[in-house]
Amino acid sequence: MAGTTSNITAPAALLHAGSYRLKGHAPVRDGDELSQPLEPADVRAFWDNMRPEKQAESTHATADPGPLKVLELRELLTTIIHKKARKGAVAMELYTQQCCDIYESLDGDGRKAFLRMLAHEFCAPKAAAQSAAREYIDGASTEADPAKYAHLARTLRDALTPQYTELFDQINRLPGGFAFLVHMRADMLDYIRNNREDTAARAMSDGLMMKLETWIIGTLDLKRITWNSPACTIEKLGQYESVHAVKSWLDVKRRLGNGRRCFGFFHRSVPMEPLVFVWVALTDSITSNVQTILQEREPTLSSGEDAAKCAIFYSINSQPGLSGVDLGNFLIKRVVGVLRAELPNISTFCTLSPLPRFRAWLDQWLTPDCLRSPPNDVAVPMQAQDNLIASVPGTSTWTAALKHIIDSRGWTSDQITLSAMEPVVRALGAHYLVNLKRGKGNVAYDPVANFHLRNGACLHRLNWRGNTSYSGLRQSLGLMCNYNYVLDRIEDNNERYVRDGIIACSGDDPFISRASKHYAKL
C-alpha cells in the first residue's frame, strides 16, 4: 500500500485491512479469520509473543529503518500537514500511511527524534500567531461587520492550533489509525518521563490526549472477556496488566474462570484490543487480601455464582497511551449495571486497591528529625508505639524502630515483627489516605484514592498484608485498601469530595476513624 515520496523508501504497510499491527505483537485477526477455530497452539504462540524477551527479540529482528534523512522525513511531514499533495484524499492517505510505516520502522532513539522534531518544528508558528493576535485585537475595537470579526477569530484560532494536529487527524482517518495514535502517545509519555524539561513535547502529548478523548465518545462497546474470547484479546490482558502481574496463560485462565469476571471497553475500529478493562471477583464477603483472589484454583462460593453477595474490583488497567483519559469511571458504572442485572443477589460493589505511593511517601516522611522526635499529626496508639520500640532493641522512638525494620531484610517472615508493625502501618496508611493532599488543594495525594473518591466511593477498610507480592511490599509494605461503592450515596459523595475535599467513609475501620477525628482536631 505504501509507496515512495520525496525519495523516502518506506517499509511494507503496517496498517492494513482495518487492523493495526505493532511490531513484536501478535496481529489482529479480522475478516474470515475470525470464523476459523483457535487451536491450543495459537494460544501458546500468542502468549509466547507477549513475553518481554520475545518482544525484544522480534523488535530487534524487524527494526531496520535504513538511512532515513531528517530532511526527507521533514518534507514528508510538511506535505501531510500543509496538504501539499494535489492528488486528493487517496494521495493524502498514502502519504500518511507512509509516515506511519516509517515511524513503526524506527528504533527507540529514532522515535524520540521523530517526536522531538514533531513537537518543536510543527507546533503553532509564533510569528503567524502573533500577527493573527494583533489583527484580532485591532479588529475587535474597529470592526463592526460580524462576518469579518468572525473571520478574524477563526484566523487567530487556526494560527494558535499546533500544526501536528493535522497529522493526528489524518492518521485517525486511516484503518486502525486510532490504535496507532494510542501507541504513539505511549511513546510520547515515555519520552517525557526522561525529558521533563521538554514542555513542547508535554503540550503535544496533552493535545493528543484531548483528541483521543473526543474521538472515543460514542465509539466504545462494553464486552465481557472470557477464555473463549479471541487469543489476541486474551494476550492484551497480560500485556497491559499493570497492577497484578500475569505469570502465565494458566494464570489468565484462572482469572477468567468460575466466580471471576473481566470486562473491557473496546473501540469500534479496534474490536479485538481492550482500551481499558477491569477484573472482578465474585465473593461472599469483602475480600481483605489479593492472594485469596489470585491464588485460588477454584473460588470458594457458598452456593455458586448466583449466591455471591459481593463484587470485588481488584484491578483496573488501561493502555499506557490513554493515561489521563478517564475511562475507568465509566467502566465501573457500566459493569455494576451489568452485574446487578445478571446477579441480583450482589449488593456490595467494592474494590481491593493498592496504595502505589505509600512507601515512597513514608521514606520521605521518616526524616532525621522525625526519627528523633515523632510528629504528633499521626494517630498511632501508644501501646502500638511501645510494642514496636520493644521489637527493635536499641531504638528510642517508634519512627526509628519502623525505619530500622523496613530498611532491613527478612522482616516479612518474622511474625513478632509483623504483629508489632500492623497497627503502626495501618495508622500511617489511614493518615496517608485521609489527611495527605496534593498541593494546596483538597484532592487526595494518592492517585488511586483520588480516582475512587472522585467517582463517589467510600473509604472502607485498610488491609494489612493485603498484597504480599514483591511489588506490593515495595509500593506499600503490603497494605491495600477497600473502596466501597454504596450506590445510593455515590452522587452525594462525589459532590462533597469535589467541592470540599470531604472523604466519605463506610465500615468500622478504627484506624480510618481515628485518622479522621485526629485530623479534625489539628
TrEMBL record:
Alphabetical list of InterPro entries matching this protein: Malonyl_CoA_deC, Malonyl_CoA_deC_C, Malonyl_CoA_deC_C_sf, MCD_N, MCD_N_sf
Domain Malonyl-CoA decarboxylase C-terminal, first and last residues per copy: 218-485
GO biological process: acetyl-CoA biosynthetic process; fatty acid biosynthetic process; malonyl-CoA catabolic process
Name of this protein: Malonyl-CoA decarboxylase
GO MF annotations in UniProt: malonyl-CoA decarboxylase activity
Lineage: Eukaryota, Fungi, Fungi incertae sedis, Zoopagomycota, Kickxellomycotina
Organism annotation: Coemansia guatemalensis
Coiled coil: none
Domain Malonyl-CoA decarboxylase N-terminal: residue ranges: 128-196
A cellular component annotation (GO) from this entry: mitochondrial matrix
Highest taxon of source: Eukaryota
Pfam families, per the entry: MCD, MCD_N
